[in-house]
Amino acid sequence: MIFQNARLIFPDSIRDGLEVVVEKGKIAAIPERGLVRRKEVVDLHGNYLAPGFIDLHVHGALGRDTMETSADAFQVICDYHGSGGTTSLLLTTATASLDSIADVLSAIRECCCSIKQIAGVHVEGPFISKAKCGAQRAEFIQNPSRASVQRLLDYADVIKRITIAPELRGAPEAIENFHMHGISVSGGHSDAWDEQAREGFARGMHSVTHTLNCMSSARRRGIYRVGGLLEFALSEPRISCELIADGHHVSETLMKMLYRAKGPRGICLVTDATAGAGLPDKAQFSLFGKDCVV
To answer: Under a CB-based contact definition with an 8 Å cutoff, are residues 294 and 280 in contact?
Structure first.
């Protein structure tokens, strides 16, 4: 199959006059127009053709939630986000009991082979700050212990990303442990001071979750003003920043500030979509056990 007459989006440019040759579901070549002949041709009429989106932070869609531990829910979520161009995603858990999180991880482990869009799991909580919990359920928040960390590491084949508040007791050791097992550690839902964020980074925390939302920023300590997780992330070039750029979570000015600080390669756009995604206005849905209206 050949896709032709499209504007192709590359990392550093948008190019015309090329075709995309697909064989066995994969891109086989991107030659100049007219160099390859096939019977199956798709004319895109000058529209853009881009790689599929990868969303690292997806809780749900169309009234369904990752925490349902249901293959049907996972499929609905993936189908909805696939309709918007997301070809891979991390189903994201909410702060809950470790037993509930383990049930979700087990269910996703069983579905990964049959639902190809599932690239793994992003575990958001329970190792977060009560002061910055946002919509997460505070009653399930806890400090990471050896036992609780090991409970999650039993699913290291499924967990690809975990959000941790680096200032918690036991967090530096947990960050290092997750990092050593190949799990990407992201600082988030955090009230950390600059030096606590810096220690988390030294232990393997190389990104932050939904930047500018539910994270500490500059404040006074004695006569000095000291940075928080936000300022550390902005100042450290090796930190990647999630951003919910939907126009509701972060203002245009703050998005511009983040872009100037990090550049396009330092920002990872995410939806952080909940079960409300795709529902009509005034529709009701559940968000981490709370009744919500679109």
So the answer is: yes
C-beta neighbour count of 47 within 10 angstroms? 9
Residue 105: closest CA among 116, 94, 205, 165 = 94
Q: What is the CATH number of the domain that holds 9?
A: 2.30.40.10
Taking each helix axis as running N to C, give the angle between helix 171-180 and helix 146-153, from 0 to 180 degrees, rounded to the nearest 10. Answer: 20
pLDDT digits (tens, 9 = 90+) for 125-181: 999 999 999 999 999 999 999 999 999 999 999 999 999 999 999 999 999 999 999
How many domains are there within the chain? 2
Mean pLDDT computed over 218-225: 95
Half-sphere exposure for 52 (CA within 13 Å, toward CB) = 16
Residue recorded with tokens 């991107």: 30
Contact 60, 77 (CB under 8 A): yes
Phi-psi region of 5 (alpha: psi -120 to 50; beta: other; left: phi over 0): left
Q: What is the mean pLDDT of residues 201-213?
A: 98
Is 72 one of the catalytic residues? no
Same domain, 164 and 252: yes
134 secondary structure, DSSP code = T
Residue among 55, 157, 272, 291 flagged as catalytic: 272
